[in-house]
Amino acid sequence: MSYILIVDGSKADREFIRGAIAATGSEIEVRCVDDAFLAREMIAQEDPHLIVLDVDLPRMSGGEFLGHLMRHHPLPVIVATRASNADSNRVEKLQLLGAVQTLYKPSSVTDETRFMEQFHSIVETVMAIQDKAIQNRAIVCNESMQNYDNDDTRPASETRSAGSIAIAIGASTGGPMAISQIVRHFSANSPPILIAQHISNRFLKAMVKGWQRLTDMQVTIAEHGTQVTRGGIYVAPPERHMEIDLDGRIKLLSMVATDRYAPSINILFNSLARRRHTTVIAALLTGMGDDGADGLLRLRTAGANTISEHQSTCVVYGMPARAEEIGAASEVLRLPEIGPRIAELVAQAIESRQRRKMREPCDSLK
């Protein structure tokens, strides 16, 4: 039986959060511990649906526990802490590590109402995603494999046109840490990597700086009109959409009132699907919602290699679940496998292009 795990050093706060969960109307079991080591033991026995975590814990801080959890056993985590325990740097770190949301425990009746509204919305969203993932896991995996085996649009090297190579990555909750495990596999001479990560301006620079420490590629926040080149990682800025035009230049588009996500992963993926002379390798990683799934399907139909992250390593199994459901992913891989697989596909694409170039002089004599 699944459950929600509250990890909080304060008995009063544990009871308050237990009451907040009960107020959502959920009948799921709630378990409480006051220590990260006890939480680890419980998770080793059975995964919770959701963890509600405080920052201020004995023996091991909530931030340290979150870092270990996301590296080795990613699960959805809401951080609920006192404002005095969560300075801007600490909150920034928690968000980059993969916390679904950081909420401040109320200190007044007004704060309590606001907290309950935010908490209920997040809990209901995460629980719905997790329930659907568990119910559909076997169905989705089976259908995905059948679609791959029978789909005439499966990527094949002989159907690709000659041209450049591009890597595209889309992610949301838990994405900064997930992407850090991918970019480390690439060097200064690698094909360009284009990233649409749902994140606020507040955390953008820290995220880019963290990725830069892991790779010899040049990580930059994308600017309108920039020519995409080898050795560059281009990150879509928050509240703007990033496209790659037919000349290989970045186009930044403004949001409109109906946009659900910005930057939109679908918009990035769709723009690359129009580039018929580019070999595209795309990965859709952890995150809430469904952004990127339709774009990944369009890329696969256009002949791209498409990868979605396996449920076992997703912080939130939302976007990849949708991608698998509609047959958008030609491969479903655990996070540690994605970087090496993309590197392998890049090497294969380069080799294929070299073989075509060698054949061209011979073809001209026929």
3D architecture notes:
The chain has 366 residues and is an alpha/beta fold. 44% of the residues lie in helices and 18% in strands. It has helices at 11-22, 36-45, 62-72, 88-97, 109-150, 175-183, 201-212, 265-273, 293-301, 319-325, 335-364; strands at residues 3-7, 29-33, 50-53, 77-81, 101-104, 165-171, 193-197, 218-221, 232-235, 240-244, 250-254, 279-284, 305-309, 331-333. The strands form three sheets. A seven-stranded parallel sheet has the order 8-9-7-6-12-13-14, with helices on both faces. Strands 2-1-3-4-5 form a five-stranded parallel sheet, sandwiched between helices. α6 (175-183) crosses α11 (335-364), α8 runs parallel beside α9 and α9 (293-301) crosses α10. The termini are far apart.
How are the SSEs placed, and which strands pair?
Blueprint: E1 3-7, H1 11-22, E2 29-33, H2 36-45, E3 50-53, H3 62-72, E4 77-81, H4 88-97, E5 101-104, H5 109-150, E6 165-171, H6 175-183, E7 193-197, H7 201-212, E8 218-221, E9 232-235, E10 240-244, E11 250-254, H8 265-273, E12 279-284, H9 293-301, E13 305-309, H10 319-325, E14 331-333, H11 335-364
Helix pairs in contact: 3-4, 6-11, 8-9, 9-10
- pLDDT average, as an integer? 85
Shape descriptor reads elongated
- Largest sheet features: 7 strands, parallel
- Distance N to C terminus: 69 Å
- Compute the gyration radius: what is it? 22 Å
- Helical residues, percent: 40-55%
Beta strand %: 15-25%
The ordered H/E elements are: EHEHEHEHEHEHEHEEEEHEHEHEH
